[in-house]
Amino acid sequence: MPILFLFLLLFIGVPLVEIYLLIEVGGIIGAFPTVLAVVFTAVLGVTLIRIQGFSTLQKAQNSMNQGVVPAKEMIEGLMLLFAALCLLIPGFFTDAVGFLLLIPPFRALIASQIIGSAAMKSRFSGHGHGFGAGSRNQGHFFEGEYEDLTPEQQHQQNQERLHHQHIIEGKVDEPDNQNDTDSK
Questions:
Q1: Closest Cα to residue 83, out of 104, 55, 112, 62?
Q2: Is 170 within a domain?
Q3: What average pLDDT does the structure give for the chain?
Q4: In total, how many domains does the chain have?
Q5: Is the pLDDT of residue 128 over 60?
Q6: ∠ at Cα 83 (36, 66), nearest 5°?
């Protein structure tokens, strides 16, 4: 999709849809109730975003404490930021998009799709480290195995590795250098 089309859609299409919806709703319930509804949805949305934002931040901290990269939580945080922007823009269409992004299962589904898409692109693009199919690293190929784990399985595996590490404490004996210096 050309970038010019996206800009036209974003900066001309969305405001036109918002104006149309505001006129239609205003014709049905009146101008003053329409303005109150727009202000109410903005206040309600910002309040809900604060609550869910703190919840997402706590999930990210829990993931980091378990040694897992909080990729899903970071994507969800960006979606909450976008939802806040949508809810602060006056209008019913952007409010609907903002409230849709406030539904945690919907937001988690989109975040998983974004992460999955990014992982597949980076895995098979051949850019970066040259591990992907069609790699452009002058004929060098890397062979190996991987295991696709859930974050919980990865955490469990890391915990097992920590329990199986053996640390031997003791004293290192240095060789006696006096014999070398006495003979010279």
A1: 104
A2: no
A3: 80
A4: 1
A5: no
A6: 140
Q: By residue range, what is the domain housing residue 65? A: 10-126
Please tell me the number of Cα atoms within 13 Å of 48 on its side-chain side.
19
Flag whether 87 is in a domain.
yes
Written as one letter, the residue type at 129 is H
pLDDT tens digit sequence for 33-58: 999 999 999 999 889 999 998 888 89
The residues, ordered by sequence, that sit 6+ positions from 141 with a Cβ below 8 Å of its Cβ are: 135
Per-residue pLDDT tens digits for 57-90: 898 899 888 888 888 889 999 999 999 999 988 9
Whether 158 is in a domain gets the answer no
**37 lies in some domain:** yes
- Phi then psi for residue 165, to 5 deg, are -80, 135
